[in-house]
Amino acid sequence: MAFGAEELRVLRRALALALHPSPVSAEDLQDCLRLAESVDEAAREGARLRAFLVADLARYRAALPGTAAGYLLLLEEALGNGYRPNPDDLAALRALRGNPAAATLLDRCRMLAEQDVRARLSVRAVPQSRTRLLALPGGLASEEGGKKPADKPAAQPQPRPPAKTPHPERPIPTPGEVFPPKRKPAPPPANPPQQLAAG
Length: 199
Fold this sequence. Notes:
The protein is mainly α. The protein has a domain at 5-124. It has 7 helices and no strands. The chain has helices at 5-19, 26-62, 68-80, 87-95, 100-125, 140-145, 175-178. α4 (87-95) packs antiparallel against α5 (100-125). The longest helix is centred in the first third of the chain and has 37 residues, at 26-62. It is elongated.
């Protein structure tokens, strides 16, 4: 983004006001607002152009190898505008590496991809800062004046429940123990006893 002479004058005035606050004239205020709107519009236009360039690059990549010359030019332009190559770009460049321009771009894209990987790994390796608890000694209250609040009693630690003793392991009952077999009724006698007549 390039500034013209008039825009640079307004920018210098805005920076001077930021560093040394003083009363601002209505004209200076309007100039600063116009410059801010121009910068916002230029940023939006830059984002639109980048989105168009990336979409165009994807179309050329999908039509390879017939569009190799146009794809390589677009990729080089996109890299100059801050585009980071993705795995599809690396695969396309590997397929075109017989072309000297593609081989050069492949080396450049590999280097950028390695830088991205290293940056992501370094962010993960840095431990997150821990915020201090305000209610505990050594927290923010002690940093602000070294005073501990005397009017509040210290929190008493809660007693822990007694640890449960593990039950001795019991054998798992068999289905026969859980569901005892049904007993079959006794069969009737084969020869019923004859009643003897009295007398």
